[in-house]
Amino acid sequence: MTKAEFPTPLPLATPALGEPYLLTPGPLTTSKATKEAMLRDWGSWDGAFNRVTAEVRQHLLHMAGVQDDSFACVPLQGSGSYSVEAALATAIPRDGKALVLMNGAYGQRATKTLEYLGRAFITLDKGDYLPPQPDEVDALLKANPDVTHVFLVHCETSSGILNPLRAIADVVKAHGKRLIIDAMSTFGAVPVTVDDIAFDVLVSSANKCIEGIPGFGFVIIRRSVLEAAKGRANSLSLDLYEQWVYMERTGQWRFTPPTHSVVAFHKALEQHANEGGVQGRLARYTRNRDVLVSGMRELGFRTLLEDCWLSPIITTFFCPEHPDFQFMRFYDELKTRQFIIYPGKLTQAESFRIGCIGQIDEYVVHQLLRAIADSLIAMGVDMRKTPD
Ligand SMILES: *Cc1c(COP(=O)(O)O)cnc(C)c1O
């Protein structure tokens, strides 16, 4: 490919001079406006900050299609896993039992969390790259009537697979069970609304598709589930019920909030709305993914997943079997060209991942493809010479 074939980058997505693009599933490249929102300090008890918190909670409920008070949004300090842990402890009674649908690291982490919490569970483990199928879930729920909750990762970020949420939600509902969704890496970019998907609990965080900075997660949870959860948590600081009660009563976070992160997120939500909300963001990420996948295939790379399971969030590519290809060298070559990619997380094959989310657009992806082509040349990797 020649330089002339690549469009010029748009000013929208250019990070500060020398700052790399983060093509990772969070933390990711944020906008200048989002970063600038952090240039002042906020009192955690102050009315102005409480208003920011209230608007953030309201905006998130709106994004989930909540129109009445049947659901609440409870933000919680920490990374996304803290919110998953708090949500599992809140939603699942101590004598409950979960079915965890696994096809990667985040499903596995949920089972580990349930072990810590002392909640019983069974699993459906599909390995690295296959989705759990609705009929498999149906059969497991028939065979295990004592299961009370089903846990599904919407996009399993360790491979990038987009799991069939709606079909599985329908099965769970038909069995009268409760659904907990880890929508960490999809919420804000793939539509999930309460009228469309029957769920009790949805968990996401600040630094994924809404393009904030790390610092907190949030749980969109059926109010009746929260109300039944007093005293259920295993941990003081991860008690979602207490966080909710305190926030409802005072407008404040129960313990020190990540003030700058919340204010940056508020700014990021404004930009999300200006981009056309969930649909606008989905359109941009999908273009990023399409340009990335077709460009990488032209360069000779193969995707882990079949096209029908590719998410617009992150894509896993196999490392080429060329003797001169080493991931760390490739990573460093790309880093000198201002792109940070992500190692793979597969149990079997050597792989790496490239994110499509954050403040990047298709022009940046074209730049990335040129950087990848240059890196391969620098490494002496000519994939056209590799036998299939
Ligand atoms: C990012 C992510 C999480 C949370 O990971 P943290 O490192 O705790 O933020 C959980 N599930 C999925 C699917 C994710 O992508």
From TrEMBL:
Protein name: 2-aminoethylphosphonate--pyruvate transaminase
Keywords: Aminotransferase, Pyridoxal phosphate, Pyruvate, Transferase
Annotated organism of origin: Pseudomonas izuensis
Organism superkingdom: Bacteria
Residue numbers carrying N6-(pyridoxal phosphate)lysine: 208
Keyword Transferase tagged: yes
EC numbers for this chain: 2.6.1.37
Complex and partners: Homodimer.
InterPro entries recorded: Aminotrans_V_dom, NH2EtPonate_pyrv_transaminase, PyrdxlP-dep_Trfase, PyrdxlP-dep_Trfase_major, PyrdxlP-dep_Trfase_small, SP_NH2Trfase/AEP_transaminase
